[in-house]
Amino acid sequence: MVGIQAARGTRDILPEEVGYWQQIESNARDIFRRFAYREIRTPVFEQTNLFERGIGEATDVVGKEMYTFIDRGDRSLTLRPEGTAGVARAYIEHHLSAMGGIQRLWYSGAMFRYERPQAGRQRQFHQVGVEVLGSADPRADVEVITMAVSLLNTLGIYDLTLALNSVGDGDDRNRYRTALIDYLTPFQSHLDEDSQDRLLRNPLRILDSKNTKTQEIIRHAPSILDYLGAQSRHHFHQVQESLTDLGISYTVNPSLVRGLDYYTHTAFEIQSSHLGSQSTICGGGRYDGLIDQLGGDSTPAVGWAMGMERLVLLLQLQSISPTKIDFYLASKGQQAERQGMVFAQALRNVGFGVEVDLSGSAFNKQLKRADRSGASACLILGDGEIEHQSVQVKWLATGNQETVNQSDLLTQVDYWRQRLGENM
Ligand code: ATP
Ligand code: MG
Question: Among 27, 170, 184, 331, which is least packed by CB within 10 angstroms?
Answer without folding.
Answer: 170
